[in-house]
Amino acid sequence: MTARPANAELEGVRGIACLMVALSHTLYLTHLDPTVTLPRWLHSLEAGHTGVLVFFVLSGYLISWTNPGPCTPESRRAYLWRRFVRLAPVYYVAMILTIAVILVRHDQGQVRTMVATFLGLQNFNDYFGFNVSVPMSNGPLWSLNYELLYYGVFILLWRYQPRVGWVFVPALIATFLGWFTPQMMPLFLASYACGWLFWAAGWWLARLPELPAAAPHSRAVTWLLLIFAGHQLGGVTRILNALGLHSADAGMVTLGQIGVLPPILLLMADVGRRRLPATPLLIVLTWLACLVPLAGMLWTGRLWTDPSWMMGGGAVLLAGAALPIRTTAWLKSFVGLGRISYAFYVVHFPLLFVVQRLPLPGGTIPSYFGRILVWATLALSLAWFLELRFQPWIKARLPRPKFA
User: Fold this and answer.
1) Is-contact 347 97, C-beta < 8 A?
2) What pLDDT is recorded for position 109?
3) Is residue 303 within 8 Å of 297, Cβ to Cβ?
4) What residues contact residue 12 under an 8 Å CB cut-off, 6+ apart?
5) CA–CA dist 208, 312 (Å, integer)
6) Residue 213 has what DSSP assignment?
7) Residues in the chain, pLDDT under 70
């Protein structure tokens, strides 16, 4: 593998995506204390699902960026070994924690689910009627199933170097079919296809030419705020609904979420210093995905009925105000969280139920934030240990294959 210089800003983006997920699971969901009802505006301060989509783009980018050489049998085996050593030790510790929480909670019907999860087959969408759902005590593991699939598909891209159209067009067709004719396209395939559009976008971005070191930065603050606004406003979904093209269930990753892809690409291109083609078009699409539904909400007076829509509108205003800011240095503040984001992602959810059962004050909003503090301390400490101590310790003691 060719060594690549560290990019602190990319780690910072990973840290922000991790924070988006954490806010979703502590404010949108209230597993820490189900007796507490948070204010609607606080309940809306999240963008967890979009955070996972940012992870997809980051993953595709980094896998492509760190495997630039020819795809030989030796390099393929080395790639798979590195993925295994990077993911498996932390993943299986998270599985042990998940099983412990399942036993304490007496969750029923989880045996098949846990066997499937140990094999990486967990999915909220059934496989042609065969259901191997995600553990109730660790729902975020759904995305690991997608990642494992994409790691495998990457080998085909690496080996055969197909034209970009072959990478995206079939997935785009499956995504549209999943939204408009779900009876023709199984939801798990449509979701895989739409998630692939995000992952492959990162892969494609890493292959683009680099900008000169002296090139000015773009507007990373603006793009991040518009990513958040797109999540809150549900831009493409609102537009499709207004056109009478509603979909009751299009899977875990859907056509309605495509609206956040342009700002994610703009953010990643700025942070990765890539020469992004059709940048003006992507900028227009980014703004339209927020402004069109926002205009409709203002026109009908519905904007003021939902705190998440008001928050999205406020984020759009802030994004406009942040246009003069052209720096990414602020992303370095999130590097620490980015470095432990994988372990945090796979252990933070079961720890919510651990803290739920601790003999802590409850029933009030102040006590709920006290529980968040306890949970954050536990989750961050365990993630730090797993990422920076346990995984390197395991890696150093595994026999290193000749090809790695």
Assistant:
1) yes
2) 83
3) yes
4) 271, 328, 330, 331, 332, 333, 334, 335, 338
5) 31
6) T
7) 1-5, 403-404
